[in-house]
Amino acid sequence: MSKITEDNTHPPAWFTVSEAARYSGLSIALLYELIKEDCIVSSTVLRPGRRRGRRLIQRGSLDTFIEEGIGKGSVDNIRGGAAGNLDSTETKGGTAE
């Protein structure tokens, strides 16, 4: 698998999870959460006779996921947060400061 170039001019079609994290700026933990929630496309590549493989993330699905969040009102739109709906007297905890 080719490494991501510094300027991302020709990123690969599939990333390892670490490469996807560097490319997107998202944490590895969040990427696994997004995979589990079917928000991004991934594949585990296994060699014949092996039980463990390499998880790859499709760059296009990651780009689409990120682009779909652009312009949404919520500060925490990835996890469905309601921060964008809070008025000036509320915090995320629901109490006035």
In short:
With 97 residues, the chain is of the alpha+beta class. Helix content is 29%, strand content 12%.
Question: Your description of this structure?
Answer:
- The protein is α+β, with helices and mostly antiparallel strands.
- It has a domain at 10-63.
- The chain has 3 helices and 3 strands; from the N terminus they run βααββα.
- It has a 3-stranded antiparallel sheet with strand order 1-3-2.
- A hairpin with an 8-residue loop joins β2 and β3.
- The longest helix is centred in the middle third of the chain and has 11 residues, at 59-69.
- The model is unreliable at 82-97 (pLDDT under 50).
List the helices and strands and how they pair.
Blueprint: E1 14-16, H1 17-24, H2 28-36, E2 42-45, E3 54-58, H3 59-69
